[in-house]
Amino acid sequence: MVKELKEVDLMTNVDVDALATNCDAYSQYVECTEIIRAEGPMVEYTNKSAETNRVPHPLLTKKTQLHNQMRSLATGLVACSQAMGKATREDIAMLFGQFHMIDAQYGGKMLKMMKKKGWLVPPPLHITQRSPEEVLV
User: Fold this and answer.
1) What is the block-wise mean pLDDT of the chain (137 residues), using blocks of 10 residues?
2) Where are the alpha helices (DSSP H) in the chain?
3) 97 to each of 84, 93, 108, 124, how far by Cα in Å?
4) Which side of the chain, N or C, has fewer Cβ within a 10 Å radius?
5) Residue 27 and residue 65 share a domain
6) What is the number of structural domains in the chain?
7) Based on the domain organization, do 70 and 38 belong to the same domain?
8) 19 in a domain, yes or no?
């Protein structure tokens, strides 16, 4: 995947750490998912009083944390938009506007690459032509 990202100018030396962090989080997320599937979402827990209860699997919390970590890498556009809206100085708003545009361009390049490689197949558009009489009904 790194090769493809470099081809469309989406991968630089600065991005390696973010990609490695995301890959690590994803592999842990998959591992948590497999364990939860095998053991079930509820597990037995014996507390200090020697009482056994069924509680949510502890890895559910870890899985949520990993999901949020991976998702945080994709929220740059929203954060930049919020910063632009809250900024009281024009120069700060413009700076976040530049960050926003860079993120949007990367997103567009990523989308194009994913379609080209066949990793994203958009669904067919089902547009039916209706007569003016059907529209007025």
Assistant:
1) 60 65 82 91 88 88 82 64 79 80 75 76 71 68
2) 2-7, 16-39, 58-72, 76-86, 90-117, 132-136
3) 6, 6, 16, 34
4) C
5) yes
6) 2
7) yes
8) yes
